[in-house]
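Continuing the series of single-chain predictions for the mutant panel. This is the parent chain; the variants come on the following pages.
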Amino acid sequence: MVKDPADKSKLALAINGQVIGEWFKEQFDRLFSSIRKTVISPRKNKGIGL
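Parent structure:
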C-alpha cells in the first residue's frame, strides 16, 4: 500500500512501488509485444515457384 500519486490523502495498491493499474498495463504491453513478434515472422518460400 502506497499513497495514491493523484490524491495523497488516499492509498493505492502497488506492486514493486508501481500503482497496480500501471503495472498491469506494462505487463499487458510486454505480453502483446512478445506475441506480435512471434506472429509477424518473415515468410520465406511460401509462393509458387515458376
